[in-house]
Design a protein that fits this description.
Order of helices and strands: HHHHHHEEEEEEEEEEEEH
Largest sheet: 10 strands, antiparallel
Shape: elongated
Number of strands: 12
């Protein structure tokens, strides 16, 4: 017989933790899909389909596939919980039957012992005080056993009742997940049909695709060149200043470097999540629909129109400038580390301003041609470009 409170809880507790994690992932993906849907609607409002719309649909397909995988994981974890709860119920029912059997046997023994004489007779007929005392102890022990068995039976029945309620709720939860999974499957099928339609439409005009790709590549190359030149100018000015700097000023720079580096993996996102989705990652990659390979030094964050952009760490605004066709750009230094915020529509800071972590520096720009709103974000240590996804806090 299992002792009340020692029924198998380990599996249930582990599956609950995994289930909570899957629920959290579902909420995050739901918000990211909603964001991309809004961005795609803006892109679709243009007269003709564009590469931006197709790219956003591709992202949605990927996220919905992740969402479906998460929902299937939820069903698996709920199955584990239902199995564990069912096992506990079966064990409790066995225990209740065993308690009833033992209690019945105890009552039979008691009845046979006292059916002709009550307890006072045995006490009064004792040959000595010692014998009377021991008989009294025996009668009290029987009474305690009866009371204990009754309490255990009541507690076990109450615990069993709770488990029946829990099992019913787990089955309802699973049914909800099954219905959600079916709806998401339908949405994914419809989205893939739309994805093919947009792709086929764009494919009919390969010259247009080539022009869009070339324009995108030219704009990105222009932005990369401007950032490189501006960072080089800032570094040169800073190095010239360091040559004549006092020890106290150098100590401040070293402390900034140490503080910045110690926060790797903990920095907040320049756009608060889930108000943005990564639409282009860091590193070498091939442009969709072409064989052209590019080296991206930062990340693109697709977001909603007029979304505020914030500094990820305190520092000094080194540069504020406009880039034709690419909006405005802000570069902030944090010792010998730099963060770059490009494709802004408005700016709330000026050169040599000191900004605090999470300070509002401007708003993301909406491309008038594609309707897509995004921020280009880059991180550097001197001349080395860093992958922002390794430095920013994990999305959750």
């Amino acid at each position: 017989m299992a002792i009340l409170g020692t029924y198998p809880q380990t599996i249930s507790s582990q599956t609950s933790a995994r289930l909570d994690s899957l629920y959290s992932l579902q909420r995050k993906l739901d918000k990211e899909i909603s964001l991309l849907t809004h961005a795609r609607d803006s892109a679709r409002s243009r007269k003709e389909s564009s590469q931006a719309e197709l790219r956003l649909i591709n992202q949605q397909v990927g996220l919905r596939e992740q969402l479906l995988a998460g929902l299937q994981g939820q069903m698996g974890e709920l199955d584990n919980q239902i199995y564990a709860t069912t096992a506990v119920i079966a064990s409790l029912e066995q225990d209740i039957q065993l308690i009833k059997t033992q209690f019945g046997k105890l009552m039979v023994v008691t009845y046979k012992a006292f059916q002709k004489r009550n307890t006072s007779f045995y006490l009064m007929s004792s040959s000595s005080l010692s014998q009377g005392y021991h008989r009294m102890q025996y009668f009290q022990a029987i009474q305690r056993m009866q009371t204990s068995q009754m309490r255990l039976l009541k507690r076990t029945k109450a615990f069993l009742s709770q488990k029946y309620i829990l099992l019913a709720q787990q089955k309802v939860d699973k049914e909800k997940v099954v219905m959600t999974e079916q709806m998401e499957q339908s949405k994914l099928v419809a989205l893939k049909v739309e994805q093919k339609a947009v792709f086929d439409k764009l494919k009919q005009d390969e010259a247009k695709i080539a022009r869009e790709l070339q324009q995108s590549q030219n704009e990105r190359a222009k932005l990369a060149d401007e950032i490189k030149k501006e960072l080089e100018r800032i570094r040169k000015a800073k190095n010239d200043k360091i040559k004549t700097a006092k020890k106290e000023e150098i100590d401040v720079i070293n402390k900034l470097n140490k503080d910045f580096a110690s926060n790797k993996g903990k920095f907040p996102w320049p756009i608060p999540m889930p108000n943005a989705s990564i639409s282009r990652h860091f590193g070498r990659q091939t442009l969709p629909g072409s064989n052209t390979e590019i080296d991206v030094q930062g990340i693109d964050l697709t977001t909603v129109p007029a979304q505020n952009v914030r500094a990820i760490f305190g520092g000094l605004v080194e540069s504020v400038m406009s880039i034709p066709g690419q909006g405005k750009m802000v570069i902030i230094s944090h010792g010998t580390y730099y963060t770059v915020y490009a494709n802004l529509s408005t700016i709330n800071v000026k050169a040599q301003d000191k900004v605090l972590e999470l300070g509002n520096i401007g708003a993301a720009r909406t491309d008038p041609a594609t309707g897509e709103t995004k921020l280009y974000f880059q991180m550097n240590q001197d001349k080395i470009s860093l992958d922002p996804e390794l430095w920013l806090v994990k999305k959750g």
